[in-house]
Every structure is written in C-alpha cells, then in structure tokens.
C-alpha cells in the first residue's frame, strides 16, 4: 500500500448505540475497520449513504461483492458490544 496507510493507535469497544456506532457496525460487517480503511483499500473518495439518515447505504467487500443496507438501524443492542472503535 502507499505511504498514506493510517494505522490505529488504540482500540476500544462500543458501550451504547449511536449513529457513529451504526456506521462502524456496517463497515466492520463488510470486513473493514472503519471508513478510513475502506477508502484506502477501495480507492474511493465518497461512500454511498442514505440522504435522510446519513447511514452507509452500500459497501463493496474485499472479494468485490456488495453489502446493501437499509435506511433504518441495523445494529441491534445485543450487537453493539461487538463494534470496535479505532483511535488514530
């Protein structure tokens, strides 16, 4: 990869749901740490988002298949603790 690779300095787990946690859940379900890693790997400048909620709409996995997400929340409360929050 290029010298623009950004590595996280620390990691923590999500404690409660928020819009940020919802989007992280979607990126991690598709196999990426977060939006930063997705943009680096896929060489894209924008991520498809729902205009009314701002949630991620579509992501391309590393094997080039797509994940499509609903407008509504998809990260249930029982899944929140699985989401990793990376600090740079």
Automatic annotation (TrEMBL):
Region forming the signal peptide: none
Sequence similarity: Belongs to the MEIG1 family.
One cellular-component annotation, GO: manchette
Domain of life of the source: Eukaryota
Organism in which the protein naturally occurs: Propithecus coquereli (Coquerel's sifaka)
GO biological process: intracellular protein localization; manchette assembly; sperm axoneme assembly
Parts of the chain that traverse the membrane: none
Function in brief: Essential for spermiogenesis.
Record InterPro entries: Meiosis-expressed_gene_1
Name of this chain's protein: Meiosis/spermiosis associated 1
Gene expressing this chain: MEIG1
Pfam families with a match to the protein in the record: Meiosis_expr (PF15163)
């Amino acid at each position: 990869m290029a010298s623009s690779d950004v590595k996280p300095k620390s990691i923590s787990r999500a404690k409660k749901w928020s819009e940020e946690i919802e989007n992280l859940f979607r990126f991690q379900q598709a196999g990426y740490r977060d939006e930063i890693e997705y943009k680096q790997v896929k060489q894209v400048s924008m991520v498809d988002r729902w205009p009314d909620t701002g949630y991620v709409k579509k992501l391309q996995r590393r094997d080039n298949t797509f994940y499509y997400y609903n407008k509504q929340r998809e990260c249930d409360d029982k899944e929140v603790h699985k989401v990793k929050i990376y600090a740079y």
